[in-house]
Amino acid sequence: PLCSLGVGRCKCSFWFAVAHDILGIFIMLVGVFGGLVIHDLFIYAGAIIIFLSLIWWVFWYSGNIDVPPEELEDDVGLIKLKNHRLRQVARHIVNMKEPITDCK
């Protein structure tokens, strides 16, 4: 079956890319060998379809990049530092809070 081909996680992007490549090559070959009056239109259209298939290849490739969870954490500690500063500011505001008195 198709699942055993090892195409990775993003199977839809892979098959869209392959389909666009096949369609683009077919249209381009019709333009080259078809003997039509508008052969240049088919050649350019096939090349454009093949070029646009690069979008699907980029989706497929970027969807298959494996990043370990350890590398997904902030490696320079900016997020932890930002949260620490936020806690300090919140504590400072709580400590500065004065009791509300009735103004008569």
UniProtKB/TrEMBL annotation:
Keywords: Membrane, Transmembrane, Transmembrane helix. It comes from the Eukaryota. InterPro entries: TMEM238. The chain crosses the membrane at residues 12-35, 41-60. Signal peptide: none annotated. This is Si:dkey-16i5.8.
